[in-house]
Amino acid sequence: MNTANIKKFLKANIYWIGLGLSIALLITMIILAVANKSTPVEDDDFTPVVTPEIEFSNPLTDLTVMKDFSSTKLQYSNTLELWQAHKAIDLTAEEGTDVYAVLDGTVTEVTYNYLMGNIVKLDVGGGITVVYASLANDVPVKVGDAVTKGSVIGKVSNTAKSEASDGAHLHLEVLLNGELVDPNLYLDLSEK
Ligand SMILES: [Zn+2]
What we know:
Blueprint: H1 3-12, H2 14-37, E1 64-67, E2 70-77, E3 82-86, E4 89-92, E5 98-100, E6 105-113, E7 117-125, E8 128-135, E9 146-147, E10 152-155, E11 169-176, E12 179-181
The protein binds zinc ion.
């Protein structure tokens, strides 16, 4: 078949060639549309899964849980004499026991409030803030301090009036992007 013949063939069959190409194009578009549909859409109902890679060192030398975290389950408060959720973990310790920074971080708040006593907030990065409450007076850190993991940021006491009946203990909260989350996600209470 020489060039002239090819041209003649194309001219004679232009309709069928066009139709064939159109069908091929249509099939390609259908395949692409189906393939696109099976790709998960990640906008509307996308919820980030919390899989913490971060692990805290211990806030106290001995970890004895007095009251564990509960976001919905109600626990009885001896002090307030009512049932309430406890979005924190309470660790028993003697009055004056050293409390440690669980990671390197920056002190963002040192306050006192009647219900929670002396409070130190420590920003440890990754959107995580650790809140230490019921600390003794004379907190050794101040706002803006850069602290290293394991350094003393306060001492255990019984200054949280809302938990006064529980005796001296550390009330520890963890905020992830401003939301209270279970400190057990970051603490390893099992092996120590
Ligand atoms: Zn507590």
